[in-house]
Structure formats: C-alpha cells, structure tokens
Write a structure and sequence with these properties.
By secondary structure, the protein is an alpha+beta fold.
C-alpha cells in the first residue's frame, strides 16, 4: 500500500499510551488495556479501513484524548485530524471503531455522542496545520 499525500491511506486512530492519558495512575477506573485491544480488534475487522497507532503524548494531557487522522480520501475532501477528549469509556470506544470503520473525518459523519467530545488540538498541533498569512501591508 502506497503511503503519502497522493496514495491511499487509511483513517488512523492515534491513542496516547505513554505519559499520562493512557496511564492507570491518572485514570484508574479506565480499562486502558481493554480499550487498546478493542480498537486493534476493530481495526483488524475493518479490513484495512483504519489502523491504530500508539504514541507517547499527543497532548492535551488533561483531556485524555485520541486523535482521529483522516484517510487519504478524507484529506482530499478537506478533513483535518479530529481531537477527541475524555475518550476512555466503552461507548466512546465503540463510537470510535464505528466512525473509523465508516471512513472517519471527511468521509463519514461522526456519531453525535462522539462529536460532543471533540476538543481543540493543543497549540503546537494547530500551529503545524495553520496556513501562515501576512498581515495587511502599510503603504
């Protein structure tokens, strides 16, 4: 499978499992192992429609998040990564699997309950995706 801006690329669920969001010390009531297992099983069952990636810390740490990166098709339709906060419950995990299987950002509408968990990306992530423009010229 070719990867790149022009190549086919599946929707990607990026899950924190390094610093604190995915750490039982911070969220002892969440079953972090089950969630990752369920997301990976959903990815396998999707037939390649989405993949799961774990990272050390996507931020913002106070919102225990998952980042949903659009597929190549979603990107071509103008979609950008979607940040989902407080994404540790069973229902939220199932909504993530269902949305990613359906195509994710730019391809399928998110479940309403999941949409209510959308959060602003950390400033660093916004800066990487923002287009720089010049201010008004003086003259």
């Amino acid at each position: 499978m070719a990867v790149g801006a022009a190549g086919p690329r599946p929707c990607t669920l990026v899950v924190c499992r390094g610093c604190c969001c995915g750490d039982p010390r911070k969220y002892p009531d969440a079953d972090h192992a089950w969630q990752l297992e369920r997301l990976r099983a959903g990815a396998e069952a999707s037939g390649g429609r989405f993949v799961v990636r774990t990272v050390d810390c996507p931020g913002p740490c106070d919102q225990a998040n998952v980042v949903v990166r659009p597929s190549g098709d979603g990107r071509r339709r103008g979609a950008r990564p979607t940040w989902i906060g407080f994404a540790m419950g069973d229902d939220c995990t199932e909504d993530l699997v269902n949305w990613a299987t359906a195509g994710g950002p730019g391809v399928a509408p998110p479940p309403v309950a999941l949409e209510l968990k959308f959060v602003r990306p950390p400033r660093e992530a916004r800066g990487r995706t923002k287009t720089r423009t010049r201010g008004p010229t003086r003259g």
